[in-house]
Amino acid sequence: MSFRVPQTVAIVAATMLSACAATPGRISQQAPVDELDNDHGLVLRGYDPVAYFSEGRPSEGEPAINYRWHGATWRFASTEHRNAFAADPTRYAPQFGGYCAYAVSRGTTADGDPQQWAVVDGKLYVNNNALAMTLWNRDRAGNIQAGVINWPLISKRPLPGQ
User: Fold this and answer.
1) Residues 6 or more apart from 99 whose CB is under 8 A from it?
2) Which of 56, 116, 121, 149 has the highest Cβ tally under 10 A?
3) β-strands 38-39, 62-69 pairing
4) What's the CA gap between 77 and 64, in Å, rounded?
5) How far apart are CA 63 and CA 72, in angstroms?
């Protein structure tokens, strides 16, 4: 029996590691999702996408300082941030429509949490929760690559008014 315990532990560990391996091109998301992860038309739960780059932290946007892009509302902490976003939205918008980067790397979607974030190579990524962030961080490059492959394969629908 003492021989089987280490063998069992090794099998469980190998299974867990293989589950963490990126799965590009294998989509499990069945239903189409909105092009942008939004709560009633509000992207990033109202957080300012420019703040991640300019301040290095999440910052809640002001309801009065907003901008409509791709059929959704984006909020900003300042008019300067709104103007920067308006001049180049794709520079500041989160990757994978603001959905969880780890989930997209696995071929599905989950809501993104603006508190679970990283800027990598000038691009903003958000994750669903601390565990997803931890798993995504274990192989950022591989998970980003898998997400880039998977994101176009996930069926999307445009937001109203787009």
Assistant:
1) 33, 37, 109, 110, 111, 112, 126
2) 116
3) unpaired
4) 9
5) 13
CA distance 134 to 51: 22
79-134 residue pLDDT tens:
999 999 999 999 999 999 999 999 999 999 999 999 999 999 999 999 999 999 99
First to last CA, the chain: 63
Nearest-angstrom CA–CA distance, 109 and 32? 10
Taking the model in full, what pTM does it have?
0.83
Q: How confident is the model at residue 7 (pLDDT cuts 50, 70, 90)?
A: low
What totals of helices (H) and strands (E) does the chain contain, helices first? 7, 8
The single-letter DSSP state of residue 26 is: -
Contact 127, 116 (CB under 8 A): yes
What's the Cα-to-Cα distance from 136 to each of 1, 44, 117, rounded to whole Å?
36, 19, 10
Tell how strand 62-69 and strand 123-127 pair up.
unpaired
Q: Which two tokens stand for residue 72?
A: 């959704």
